[in-house]
Amino acid sequence: MRTRVLAVIVATISLAAVIGVIGQRAAKPKTTVSASAARFASDEVFSGEKIVKSEQAWKRILTPEAFYVLRKKGTERAFTGRLTDNKKHGVYACGACGLHLFSSENKFDSGTGWPSFYQVIHKENVEEEVDNSLGETRTEVLCKRCGSHLGHVFDDGPEPTGLRYCINSVALKFILKN
Ligand code: FE
């Protein structure tokens, strides 16, 4: 009789242990994408969350030429950029943060020596600021997500917009699409 009671107790404890293990497995937290990764998951449309890095941090991840143009508002010499004559089908993303900015569909040959586009992919991906440097008033174009300088926009472009986004090659990353 005593052995039987003991066997029942052991069986009960074993069953409880098994249920406990199953319960733990079920309760194991699911792998979730961290908040910061989720925030920047889409490079297609600016989510509203800016990317802020120190000058030193940008310097570490950008080439000296890209740093000079993107973070110091520099301009590459005309006809020296590797994307000026690029005619491949794809997307031109911000060279600093990867946000999609221009499409090959809207690129045209302006003859200026810089990649030129008549529109941006999404208006909300860029920011415009008045630039009074060099003794003239121009409209500077910046990446809305990371604040990097891209180039300028002028109103002497082709139809249908009449705009000419004059952008530095080094400020862009080309993503080939087939
Ligand atoms: Fe950017």
Supply database-style keywords.
178 residues, alpha+beta, Metal Binding Protein, Guanine Nucleotide Exchange Factor, Chain A, 2 domains, 4 helices, 9 strands, 25% helix, binds fe (iii) ion
Explain this structure to me?
The protein has 178 residues and is α+β, with helices and mostly antiparallel strands. The chain has 2 domains: 2-31; 42-176, Peptide methionine sulfoxide reductase (Metal Binding Protein, Guanine Nucleotide Exchange Factor, Chain A, Beta Complex), CATH 2.170.150.20. The chain has 4 helices and 9 strands; from the N terminus they run ααααβββββββββ. The protein has helices at 2-27, 35-39, 55-61, 64-70; strands spanning 90-94, 100-103, 107-108, 116-117, 126-131, 138-143, 149-154, 164-167, 172-176. It has a 6-stranded antiparallel sheet with strand order 3-4-8-7-6-5, with no helix packed on it. A hairpin with a 7-residue loop joins β3 (107-108) and β4 (116-117). The protein is globular and about 40 Å long. The chain starts with a helix and ends with a strand. Fe (iii) ion (FE) is lined by residues 94, 96-97, 99, 143, 145-146, 148.
